[in-house]
Amino acid sequence: MALHLPQKASALSDVLVRLRDLGLSPAFLVRRLAPQLSEHGSETGDADTLALQLASLVGRVFGWPPESLLSQIRPEAPIPALGATRFKLPAKANDTRAALYAAYGHYIASLAIRASRHDPSPVPTDAAAISTALSAVVSSSIYRDVLVYVWRLGIPVVPLAEPGGFHAASWRIGGRNVVMLKQNTASSARWSFDLLHELWHLGHDPHSPTLAVIEGDVFAEARDSAEEQEANEFAADALLRGRAQELFMACRREAGGRIAFFKRATTEIAEREGVNVGVLANYVAYHLSRLNLNWWGAATNLQSNTEDPWRITRECLLSRVDLGCLDEPDAELFSLALRD
Question: What is d(CA 303, CA 299) in angstroms, rounded to the nearest whole number?
């Protein structure tokens, strides 16, 4: 049924103000939903058409009736797409902003599933099995190896470059798994860790047709969550050949328990044991943080930033999806989501 723009909301600015009040900034709308907003003319007819288009796009993504955006009716909270989402975010996080980003991420993730024809496989729950599979691959890119491994399980991995909201998410939509990564670091070790952390969430609730976990910094949130600690140990063991705790203790012994000596100890042990120094450094920093020792700066200095994990993830995604499976508005939304 065609929508009729009420006289009260005939100006595009009225709709933009309403969306801003709901938590959607004009900058986000231009970047991810309607880039034509930055070029629209001042004619009333042009503005009215754009208002209709924008309300339709926002309604499509967030589940709000478009007519509610074109009138004085405020959409009801919570956002319909969120369902029983488990938020694992800092207490200081902006709830509205987090919910909006989660709903947007959920919609883009659902498009990735629809455009992907990979048959899903059972998600491994044994870190040793994953470690063995990764060790069998001869490659110079630890993150690319992990990414391809997860895709072979039939799990699309979607990168976002939109700042704020969350760092990672895992969903099950219609029985299909999908992971979204939104890290602001170029560390391949960190992206690998976060991806396997999300894999743990997907593997430990295999029978539910739906799942939604939205996360901030997985290391920080693990301090008060046994579930997050288990997911971190799973990811670390998968990347460190099942020896994560053993290697941390070796670093601790070699450093003599002195924080100033951990950098050298971590570097030497990673080289001696043939493991990725960035992964080991992150794991050491994580365990030291649980002892109230901040070693993250040194760990960051040991990361390899020679790759661009976001671009690797985007290229891998685009090579494995068929946008022809999506209608034109959804294909455009998906493409906009993958812009840096």
Answer: 7
Are 218 and 191 in contact by the 8 Å Cβ rule? The answer is no
In a domain, 281, yes or no: yes
Q: In a 3-state reduction of DSSP, which class is residue 163?
A: coil
Task: Give me the domain span that covers residue 252.
Answer: 241-301
List the beta bridge partners of residue 177: 172
Pairing outcome for strands 211-215 and 168-173: antiparallel
Placement of tokens 């990811």 in the chain: 235
- How many residues make up the chain in this entry? 340
What's the rounded mean pLDDT across residues 50-74? 85
Alpha-carbon gap, residue 238 to 311, rounded angstroms = 23
Q: What are phi and psi of 67, to 5 degrees?
A: -65, -25
Taking the alpha carbons at both ends of the chain, their separation in whole angstroms is: 35
Name the pTM for this structure.
0.90
Residue 35 lies in a domain: yes
The Cα–Cα gap between 219 and 183 comes to 13
> Count of CB atoms within 10 A of residue 178's CB?
26
- In one-letter notation, the amino acid at residue 122 is P
Give dist(CA 291, CA 117) in Å, integer: 45
31 DSSP 8-state letter: I
**Which letter does DSSP use for residue 304 in this model?**
-
pLDDT for the residue 3: 41
**Is 314 a residue whose pLDDT tops 60?**
yes
